[in-house]
Amino acid sequence: MTKPNEPALSGEERFRRKRRRFWGFYVASVLASMAVAGGLGLAAGLFENGDLPGGAVIAIWIAAVLGFAWFSWWWFRRIDEVDLLDNLWASTIAFYAYVIAFGSWTILGDTQLVPPVDHGLIALFSVGVLVLAYLARKLGLR
Prior knowledge:
Blueprint: H1 11-49, H2 54-78, H3 81-110, H4 119-138
């Protein structure tokens, strides 16, 4: 009945456009993250100098957290089921690594066999595990 004015795109062209949109979205999200981090750093500096009240810093932080939650929701709606599954597996593995590292270090730290728990180091370790697990999934190492 109604015929489209443009011919249908081939599967390869649709895939190419989808990947281009994905990478455009990815680059935009990295740039936005850098801008937010810079803004938070600026706010922290202004607070330390006494030029920005504490309530404003808290409001900026809440806005950043809500923005991250919104971005995450938008991100997971845009990716396909394979990327979603890879993200879920990597997140689960990283969470297990965090729980094991935190629990082990806390118990050993309480016995004074190791230095006190360094939460920043555990967080970096967990992110490293997440990246390695995600890359392993992408490389087909299941």
